[in-house]
Structure to design on (531 residues):
């Protein structure tokens, strides 16, 4: 991920009032993660699997934070259970930021299956999402998604693809 | 679940050639687990997490077994990541699930109605729903045959008269 | 040792401001019967109790958070223990009511009925103050010690299978539980959680 895109994400998170971030270390987001962990405007909790991350964010929101979860593409599959049993059953907001590996243009074979699972799974879980491929659109997409997740009290995802994760 | 129906499920697994089972219990399937535990030909391995369970089953298949994963409806959501990996490696796996949250389930599990079948569809896991007791065995046999032929997970959802 | 007796002992020791996060099933029903309170977040689903408690404990470091977990529940996401330990929490009492059984799942044994020792696992994950108790006096003493000091304490209470008869039905569903708890935090912490004005557009 280039530093311009990292800055655009950070700007979006800050503008939209996100003040709590949970994440599992992931190569696609490593630059972003380094900046987030060193930034005092975010409380930060590293987790060992994305299901735990959803749980941590649920607790953070219920006690007054505005959380976001940075999810590796594969991790969306790991998070399916709490996204259903907590977010869907209770009606909880959560901003999900996901690098859309396996999208058209991604040449790594191991990522191929995520084209089949990522957007269909979001559909199954009733999670609205926006796909962003241009760096100049990243900040606004995050601000919009955060506004919607807070007002709808359901998770909303931003999938980053194309030049934004190059 | 009535003991007679649980017996049919277990016999169905054996007749379909299953000889290795992995699971995490569901209350409505309790009698199935109890009988499997008593039957060494179905070598049962208890898992603490359904994703781990799917991976154990994959390992057993590579070791020459015919595995079945027997999990609660909710467990399908915990196992998603592992099932996606199974797909990638083209591993056959019979997934047996009591279909909680289906119409007729008296407990508050309605949320599962919204996602079970859409989830299986989005994961490209073919499935068959069995609601009549006298169709349990054939359904299990059909699904296992196709799992082996197609080299992918295939699910059996047990509901209605077959389950309650 | 009966779980219900452990809860009686614990309920008598907690202050009204102590937040309790409880596992779905009989743990929530029994606890609600003994300590009905808006400070309870009940019926947290399988594998997520510790994680939700962790999110609350990070956000409200000045409040005590008590997590009432089950053995099968914690086993589903064991890594929660490692993630909690790394936060260096000062305000958490994590109690596992270990009946060595998937009670809600029909009564089959869980891994703690075999060789797994959750207190050792917790220590290995980095939670130094972890212990097992098997009798009520020890439970009361361990919980009392934990509540008198700050830190991150982990207690495995080995309890009998089965619940008590004639518990009041818990009619609260997840959505109502969310609203009740969030309103309580808003009132006691002076924050706005639900439906804040959002004026970005």
């Amino acid at each position: 991920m280039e530093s311009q895109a990292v800055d655009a994400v950070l700007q979006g998170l800050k503008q939209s009032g996100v003040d709590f971030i949970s994440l599992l270390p992931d190569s696609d987001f490593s630059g972003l993660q380094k900046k987030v962990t060193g930034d005092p405007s975010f409380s930060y909790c590293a987790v060992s699997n994305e299901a735990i991350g959803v749980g941590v964010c649920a607790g953070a929101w219920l006690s007054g934070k505005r959380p976001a979860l940075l999810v590796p593409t594969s991790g969306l599959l790991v998070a399916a259970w709490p996204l259903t049993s907590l977010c869907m059953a209770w009606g909880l907001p959560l901003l999900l930021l996901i690098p859309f590996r396996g999208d058209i243009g991604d040449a790594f074979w191991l990522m191929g299956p995520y084209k089949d699972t990522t957007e269909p799974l979001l559909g199954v879980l009733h999670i609205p999402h926006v796909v962003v491929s241009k760096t100049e659109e990243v900040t606004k997409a995050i601000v919009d998604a955060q506004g919607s997740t807070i007002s709808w009290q359901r998770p909303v995802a931003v999938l980053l693809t194309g030049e934004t994760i190059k | 679940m009535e003991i007679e129906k649980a017996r049919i499920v277990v016999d169905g697994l054996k007749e379909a050639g299953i000889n290795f089972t992995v699971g995490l219990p569901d209350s409505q399937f309790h009698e199935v687990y109890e009988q499997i535990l008593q039957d060494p030909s179905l070598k049962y391995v208890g898992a603490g997490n359904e994703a781990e369970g799917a991976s154990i089953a994959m390992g057993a298949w590579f070791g020459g077994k015919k595995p079945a994963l027997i999990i609660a409806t909710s467990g399908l959501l915990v196992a998603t990541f592992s099932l996606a990996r199974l797909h990638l490696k083209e591993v056959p796996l019979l997934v047996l699930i009591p279909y909680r949250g289906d119409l007729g389930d008296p407990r508050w599990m309605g949320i599962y109605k919204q996602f079970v079948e859409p989830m299986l569809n989005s994961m490209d896991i073919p499935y068959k729903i069995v609601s009549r007791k006298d169709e349990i065995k054939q359904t299990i046999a059909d699904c296992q045959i196709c799992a082996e032929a197609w080299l992918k997970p295939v699910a059996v959802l047990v509901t209605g008269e077959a389950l309650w | 040792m009966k779980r219900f007796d452990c809860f009686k002992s614990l309920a008598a020791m907690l202050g009204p401001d102590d937040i309790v996060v409880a596992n779905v099933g009989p743990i929530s029903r029994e606890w609600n019967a003994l300590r009905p309170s808006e400070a309870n977040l009940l019926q947290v689903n399988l594998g997520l109790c510790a994680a939700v408690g962790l999110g609350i404990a990070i956000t409200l470091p000045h409040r005590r958070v008590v997590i009432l977990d089950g053995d099968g529940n914690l086993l589903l996401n064991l890594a929660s223990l490692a993630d909690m330990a790394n936060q260096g929490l000062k305000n958490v009492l994590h109690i596992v009511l270990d009946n060595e059984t998937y009670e809600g799942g029909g009564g089959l044994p869980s891994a703690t009925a075999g060789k797994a020792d959750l207190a050792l696992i917790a220590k290995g994950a980095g939670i130094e103050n972890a212990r097992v108790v098997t009798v009520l006096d020890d439970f009361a003493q361990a919980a009392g010690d934990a509540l008198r000091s700050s830190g991150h304490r982990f207690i495995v209470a080995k309890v009998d299978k089965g619940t008590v008869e004639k518990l009041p039905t818990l009619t609260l569903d997840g959505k109502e539980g969310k609203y009740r708890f969030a309103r309580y935090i808003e009132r006691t912490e002076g924050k706005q959680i639900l439906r804040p004005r959002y004026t970005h557009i």
User: Anything to note?
Assistant: Chain C has eight helices and eight strands. Helices of chain C lie at 3-13, 26-34, 49-59, 71-76, 79-85, 118-125, 136-148, 174-189. Chain C touches chain B at residues 45-47, 72, 75-78, 102, 104-111, 173 (CB under 8 Å).
